[in-house]
């Protein structure tokens, strides 16, 4: 009996220790995506996907949001001659947390660049750094909060009229490809306080994919092993239910939008999903459902020889586009 009680106490202590690892990073805050033609891109992201344009700046960037998001924007489009992702940012609890994480990043070998207040319209100062996979990330604590689009914060209706396209409720996560997954794992867990919710491992125990969360979601960012650094696989947006995913598939077909795969289910995270491409070749995902994760949950592990089922649960095999089309 005493041994059993000691095991329970030790387990609870370890759970408390894990919970304390959270460093104050709350959620994905925004992503800046490079597009080749802004007008064509806006037709895709606003009319088809259903994001809402909220602002433009002197550099020609366009700011978008999903209707339930309280912050001013979550997606920034920048017109250029090469598609891909410039950076993605995470919101932290407050400015003191931002300062503490900035100091820790610098102390542990991740030099930071301070982006001044207002460089993105309505956003406070940002701290930018590079991950071992070459991707640019940033942290921020302050952004204007006009609230949910078309919904009053007092006695709110269920949803606003006038929504377009797939009607996503939030920018959920991005999936990125790069070479140094162990380095990214150390950065995101040890410094930023994320948890490893799921992983794919090869027969030697090396990580082929990692799914990291700073919340109770299945993942807030994910990485897949790839020889090249700084590759963008997709930006993902949350829908409310499976019927919305099927409706998104109908809209993709109605507009002759290039599709990657779906509708289907993931084995990893168990989300129900469809993938398609914007006119610049950047991949988008809309999905619903999926698992949840708390800091005391163990990491879910998939073997690499089950990767087909892990990614596409119904087909149980990967298509070539999903593995090779990156921006």
TrEMBL record:
Its cofactor is Fe(2+). It catalyses: catechol + O2 = (2Z,4E)-2-hydroxy-6-oxohexa-2,4-dienoate + H(+). Keywords: Aromatic hydrocarbons catabolism, Dioxygenase, Iron, Metal-binding, Oxidoreductase, Repeat. The keyword Transmembrane helix does not apply. Pfam families: Diox-like_N, Glyoxalase. Its EC number is 1.13.11.2. It comes from the Bacteria. Homotetramer. Belongs to the extradiol ring-cleavage dioxygenase family. This is Metapyrocatechase. It comes from gamma proteobacterium HTCC2207. The lineage of its organism: Bacteria, Pseudomonadati, Pseudomonadota, Gammaproteobacteria, Cellvibrionales.
């Amino acid at each position: 009996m005493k041994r059993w009680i000691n095991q329970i106490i030790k387990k609870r202590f370890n759970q408390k220790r894990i919970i304390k690892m959270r460093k104050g990073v709350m959620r994905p805050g925004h992503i800046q995506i490079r597009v080749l033609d802004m007008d064509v891109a806006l037709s895709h992201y606003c009319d088809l996907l259903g994001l809402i344009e909220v602002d433009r700046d002197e550099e020609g960037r366009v700011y978008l949001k999903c209707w339930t998001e309280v912050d001013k924007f979550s997606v920034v489009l920048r017109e250029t001659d090469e598609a891909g992702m410039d950076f993605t940012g995470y919101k932290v609890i407050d400015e003191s947390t931002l300062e503490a994480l900035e100091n820790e990043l610098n102390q542990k070998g991740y030099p930071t660049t301070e982006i001044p207040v207002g460089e993105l319209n309505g956003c406070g100062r940002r701290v930018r750094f590079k991950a071992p996979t070459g991707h640019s990330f940033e942290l921020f604590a302050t952004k204007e909060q006009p609230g949910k689009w078309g919904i009053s914060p007092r006695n709110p209706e269920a949803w606003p009229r006038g929504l377009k396209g797939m009607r996503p409720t939030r920018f959920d996560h991005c999936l990125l490809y790069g070479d140094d997954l162990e380095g990214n794992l150390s950065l995101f867990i040890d410094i930023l306080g994320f948890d490893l919710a799921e992983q794919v491992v090869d027969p030697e125990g090396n990580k082929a994919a990692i799914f990291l969360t700073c919340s109770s979601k299945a993942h807030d960012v994910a990485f897949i092993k790839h020889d090249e650094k700084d590759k963008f696989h997709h930006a993902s947006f949350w829908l409310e239910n499976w019927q919305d995913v099927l409706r998104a598939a109908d809209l993709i077909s109605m507009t002759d939008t290039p599709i990657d795969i779906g509708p289907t289910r993931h084995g990893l995270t168990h989300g129900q999903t469809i993938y398609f491409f914007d006119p610049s070749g950047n991949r988008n995902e809309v999905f619903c459902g999926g698992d949840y994760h708390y800091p005391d949950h163990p990491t879910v592990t998939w073997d690499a020889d089950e990767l087909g089922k892990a990614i596409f649960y119904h087909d149980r095999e990967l298509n070539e586009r999903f593995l090779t089309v990156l921006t």
